[in-house]
């Protein structure tokens, strides 16, 4: 996968290197909050942060932005590391914003000391209302003129736990009339008693995103702080905080790029968490979700996710990519790597009435060598057993077919893939008229699937020998959100949920070689698509993608 193409982020880095802005250093960071698992949008940010560092001989750090005790958890920390590694990236360091709590606090005292921060004990609603809005003046808090001594005393007592949650906040003293709302005396600390996954109960005040982020970048020696467009308006605040502190002059700076959005899906951690909590999906790795662990379980190769990220690149305007584009990267890669197998999802019995019996009085078992992957000769062939009792797909047979149906029907001859030509001679039904068994005769002269007299058949069907078949469960998936833009009409993405987006077929019959599939491996079921073996359940397959490329270029 080549990342030769350039973009505005890479041009900036190039420029900084040519002007020696950071002494030739490039350091990026990926800063997830450990309050959920990674999704495809994070994969885009990860790809940018890590590939950029790699291309310029720099480093990339994984920093957990763990400044909110209520929603964060160690299990998310571990899960994020695992997902990141699976995507193919190894951070140069793993660090935590919570490691900087003491340093951040010292700096906060410094700002108070310099008259650049104050304690506000109004309630949050009042503070919010006083902020004003665009074209609407802000109102200065009556607390703005507290003395340095009083502010210091209050801040220390806030830290010591003398006040209730929400009783007061520390705010930066910037400009209540600033046209950028972010600079209207933003909150730096709030009081919150919650057990933090790393610092336990040692803190009752927690820094806000804005107070923690740039300072964490600076502590780590980040050079290029890349984030999504919605932080655009935070950039002046990012710079303001850094300018107030005793830091070297080669301070990090922020660059924003467009979020990744995909059709038929959502990339909001909060909403994904709600789908999990509401039981709409089975968990964070339900194959219908756009989380990294779900895509992995569904059989998406990590390489194809990286190739997709390279292809879409980074830009400064938000856009929504078609999910079919991502799928076409998945399909292209799987086409090269997946072993071909035969599996019957909705089985119907096919009996070959002229199948021979051996000297032992038992039906003969024939073996065919079938190519594992036409895209890769090195994958060789496998031996597949054939008998007179087979499973075929229910929808490969019709009693009374329309004109364009070329599969099996009374009197029609078809090819059983890699085996013989067979002609349907009849069928059996139950009391309700449902077909329970199809009867056919095979032509012994057509071994391997072609007729010596050169006659052609219009259809080749997959099959599984009934006495050799293994039972399996297969899950088929539709889009979890039926609308291209979930919530595009009503505003609530959950209105567009397709609650029947999973179909579980539990009576599938598959060829014996599928018993050797390794957990997580993706195979192609001939004519049906690509299927991933579940990592935990040995006979459960998830459909990764269908065979046909649906991406409209
Ligand atoms: P969400 O809104 O899904 O909860 P977040 O931004 O709050 O996402 P973080 O864990 O803070 O989640 O994200 C870590 C990094 O990933 C941030 O730098 C963020 O900008 C980036 N990121 C998150 N979502 C996307 C996305 N859809 N596309 C690109 N980058 C993203
Ligand atoms: Mg965030
Ligand atoms: Mg967010």
Walk me through this protein's architecture:
This protein is α/β, with parallel strands linked by helices and 553 residues long. It has 3 domains: 8-257, HUPs (Rossmann fold), CATH 3.40.50; 269-340 and 472-545, Ribosomal Protein L25, Chain P (Beta Barrel), CATH 2.40.240; 343-462, Ribosomal Protein L25, Chain P (Beta Barrel), CATH 2.40.240. 25% of the residues lie in helices and 24% in strands. It contains 12 helices and 27 strands. It has helices at 8-18, 40-55, 74-87, 101-113, 124-130, 148-160, 209-220, 235-244, 269-277, 292-298, 302-312, 323-337, and strands at 27-30, 59-64, 93-96, 117-120, 169-172, 187-191, 205-207, 224-228, 253-257, 260-262, 319-321, 339-341, 343-344, 347-352, 366-371, 381-386, 389-393, 413-416, 421-429, 435-442, 460-461, 464-465, 470-477, 502-510, 522-525, 529-533, 540-545. It has a 7-stranded mixed sheet with strand order 12-25-26-27-23-24-13, with helices on one face. Strand 18 (413-416) and strand 19 (421-429) form a beta hairpin. Helix 2 (40-55) crosses helix 11 (302-312), helix 7 (209-220) packs across helix 8 and helix 11 (302-312) crosses helix 12 (323-337). It starts with 7 loop residues before the first helix and ends in an 8-residue tail after the last strand. Bound molecules: adenosine-5'-triphosphate and magnesium ion (2 copies). The site of adenosine-5'-triphosphate has 16 residues, from helix 2, strand 8 and helix 9.
């Amino acid at each position: 996968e080549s990342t030769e193409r350039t973009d505005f982020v890479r041009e900036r880095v190039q420029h900084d290197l040519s002007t020696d802005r950071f002494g030739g250093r490039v350091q990026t960071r990926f800063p997830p909050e450990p309050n959920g698992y990674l999704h495809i949008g994070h994969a885009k940010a990860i790809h940018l942060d890590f590939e950029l560092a790699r291309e310029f001989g720099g480093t990339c750090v994984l920093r957990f932005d763990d400044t909110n005790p209520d929603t964060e958890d160690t299990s998310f920390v571990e899960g994020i590391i695992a997902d990141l590694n699976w995507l193919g990236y190894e951070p140069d360091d793993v660090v935590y914003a919570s490691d900087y709590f003491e340093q951040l606090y010292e700096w906060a005292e410094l700002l108070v000391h310099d008259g650049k921060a104050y304690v506000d004990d109004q309630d949050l609603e009042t503070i919010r209302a006083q902020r004003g809005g665009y074209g609407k003046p802000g109102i200065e808090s009556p607390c703005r003129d507290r003395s340095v001594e009083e502010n210091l005393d209050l801040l220390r007592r806030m830290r010591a736990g003398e006040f209730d949650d929400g009783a007061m906040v520390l705010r930066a003293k910037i400009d209540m009339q600033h046209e950028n709302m972010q600079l209207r005396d933003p909150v730096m600390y709030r009081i919150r008693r919650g057990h933090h996954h790393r610092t336990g109960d040692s803190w009752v005040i927690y820094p806000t995103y804005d107070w923690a982020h740039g300072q964490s970048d600076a502590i780590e020696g980040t050079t290029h702080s890349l984030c999504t467009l919605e932080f655009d308006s935070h950039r002046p605040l990012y710079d303001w905080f850094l300018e107030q502190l005793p830091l070297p002059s080669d301070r990090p700076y922020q660059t924003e790029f467009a979020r990744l959005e995909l059709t038929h899906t959502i990339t909001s951690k909060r909403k994904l968490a709600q789908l999990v909590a509401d039981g709409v999906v089975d968990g964070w790795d339900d194959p219908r979700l756009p989380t990294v662990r779900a895509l992995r379980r569904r059989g998406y190769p990590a390489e194809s996710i990286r190739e997709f990220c390279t292809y879409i690149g980074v830009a400064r305007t938000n856009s929504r990519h078609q999910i079919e584009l991502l799928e076409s990267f998945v399909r292209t890669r799987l086409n090269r790597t997946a072993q071909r197998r035969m599996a019957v999802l909705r089985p119907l019995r096919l009996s070959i009435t002229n199948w021979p019996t051996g000297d032992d009085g038992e039906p003969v078992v024939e073996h065919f060598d079938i190519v594992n992957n036409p895209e890769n000769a090195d994958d060789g062939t496998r031996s597949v057993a054939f008998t007179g009792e087979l499973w075929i797909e229910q929808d490969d047979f019709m009693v009374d077919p329309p004109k364009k149906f070329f599969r099996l029907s009374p009197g029609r001859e078809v090819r059983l893939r890699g085996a013989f030509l067979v002609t349907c001679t009849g069928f059996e039904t139950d009391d309700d008229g449902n077909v329970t068994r199809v009867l056919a005769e095979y032509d012994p002269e057509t071994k391997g699937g072609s007729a010596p007299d050169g006659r052609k058949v219009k259809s080749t069907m997959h099959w599984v020998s009934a006495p050799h078949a293994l039972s399996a469960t297969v899950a088929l998936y539709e889009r979890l959100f039926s609308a291209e833009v979930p919530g595009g009409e009503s505003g609530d993405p959950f209105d567009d949920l397709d609650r029947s987006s999973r179909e579980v077929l539990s009576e599938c019959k598959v060829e014996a070689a599928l018993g050797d599939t390794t957990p997580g491996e993706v195979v192609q079921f001939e004519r049906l698509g690509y299927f991933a073996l579940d990592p935990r359940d040995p006979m459960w397959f998830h459909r990764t993608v269908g065979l046909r490329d649906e991406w409209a270029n």
